[in-house]
Design goal:
homodimer; Alpha-Beta Plaits; 3 helices
Chain lengths: 102, 102
């Protein structure tokens, strides 16, 4: 990730329907082109939990909150992202944003 | 953070007792020397939630799970870290570890 301390970090803990993890990971890789096409995008990573088989965390760096909440979520690219990925989640994830303290 | 894709990332969402946020941030900065002294430590960051006033996320990179769970948690440095920070949390946080997929 091309992290910059002034960036906002989107954090989402993702719980994938058990048994669908490998298909999710494959589709997640395909979906990367949609999120990375957006203005203000600064990199993302998907990480898999060592303690819980079907849990992941998605971290995305954005130049600003608006780049994510308006620029991305109102884009055609986000429709593609949703269609590829949202059916894997149960429950549907909570997304929060963070700014760097240390 | 000096992230390396083979590293394990510790993730802890921290809820600080409301009103204690600034004292927590000050003590967190002091505590950095304890965690960074441990073998296998690869960098850490504390981020503050934009949606929830008293919520933070701590991300720490470790060379291995054992560097955190044994090397750090059984150290004198961890006793100092706990004494400085653990009284700020309510509820006490869940800590999980992740490995990189994408």
């Amino acid at each position: 990730m091309l992290e910059n301390k002034s960036m906002v970090m989107e954090v989402a803990v993702l719980n994938v329907i058990p048994g669908r993890e490998l298909a999710f990971e494959k589709d997640f890789k395909l979906a990367g082109k949609y999120i990375s096409s957006i203005e203000g995008y600064g990199g993302h990573t998907l990480k898999k939990c060592l303690e819980k088989q079907n849990q992941y965390v998605l971290l995305v760096h954005w130049e600003s909150l608006e780049n994510h909440e308006i620029g991305y979520r109102q884009s055609e690219a986000y429709v593609e992202w949703k269609n590829l990925l949202h059916h894997y989640y149960d429950p549907f994830p909570t997304v929060e944003h963070y700014e760097t303290v240390v």
